[in-house]
Amino acid sequence: MNVPTMAEMLSQGKSPEVLFWVGAAGSYDDRAKKITRAFVKLLHRANVDFAVLGTEESSTGDAAKRAGNEFLFQMQAISNIEILNSYEVKTIVCTDPHSFNTLKNEYPELGGNYKVYHHTQFIKKLVQEGRLDIKKSLKGKKVTYHDPCYLGRGNGVYESPRDIIRKLGVNLQEMKQHKNRALCCGAGGAQMFKDAEKGDKEINILRTEQALETNAEIIATGCPYCNTMMTDGVKFHEKESQIIVKDIAELIAEADNL
Q1: Is residue 1 domain-resident?
Q2: Which residues contact 180 (CB under 8 A, 6 or more apart)?
């Protein structure tokens, strides 16, 4: 897809406008790779000068920190910061709110100071600058949006995802718990990598029920982990023929037939 690495750009004497931090899910999970590709298509469409770290990118350390291993987190973070600073990176964009939160809020105290965007924020910025158009290809479609915890309550980002979803011409249906009252998908805090806690109902099943109550045709997400959990919830309820789960970047890329 013609995605240069920072090392390749440096060898050509170039410095990209932005570093795209792909993240673990976007690099290795087959479903999340589709989100990565969709966002890359949008970056190309907007003629954004960007690069990735490639094999030099490691985990941000988010999962280690949430699981209580501060030592491992700092090891991972300091290693990443050394690489980022060696390339004099100024601006980073992420499709994963966990990476976004860690890079934005936790790296500065370790010497990593960057302007960090979630991809929905960056897409909105590109639209405002006239670099990217969003076609109203989903006009009339009922869509509900699930707020990722690390994007919403963690960083107060509620409107940029909704603003760009509305530009698709959709009928946005809010779940009964949304924005600062939104229910977690169940994957945060390193829960993605362990069995669910015992309880009356798994949290992703409950959250999917709230989405189904809106009678939406599409559940829009802004996080690869939320995407996985909501997709599993839809499968649990056997509603795959009635509702689909898509990242916002995918919806916009599909609207442009990219």
Answers
A1: no
A2: 152, 153, 158
Of 109, 126, 143, the domain-final residue: 126
Return the CATH number at 48.
3.40.50
What is the CA 134 to chain-centroid distance, rounded?
Answer: 18
d(CA 149, CA 168) in angstroms, rounded, equals 24
Q: What pLDDT is recorded for position 160?
A: 96
- The residue out of 126, 157, 172 marking a domain boundary is 126
Domain hosting residue 107, numbered range = 6-126
Which strands make up the sheet holding 50-51, listed edge to edge?
Answer: 50-51, 18-21, 91-94, 115-118
- Looking at residue 187, what is its pLDDT? 77
| 242 touches 216 (CB < 8 A) | no
Backbone φ and ψ for 87, nearest 5 degrees, come out as -95, 0
How many domains does the structure of the chain reveal?
A: 2
Tell whether pTM > 0.85: yes
Residues of the chain short of pLDDT 70, as ranges, are 189-190, 192-194, 196-197, 199-200, 258
CA angle 51, 38, 184 (to 5 degrees): 105
Indicate the SS3 state at residue 242: coil
Chain position carrying tokens 């909105």: 124
pLDDT at 174: 97
pLDDT in tens, 118-174: 999 999 999 999 999 999 989 989 999 999 999 999 999 999 999 999 999 999 999
What is the SS3 assignment for 172? Answer: strand
Rounded to an integer, what distance in angstroms lies between the CA atom of residue 148 and that of residue 172? 17
Task: Please check whether residue 138 lies inside any domain of the structure.
Answer: yes
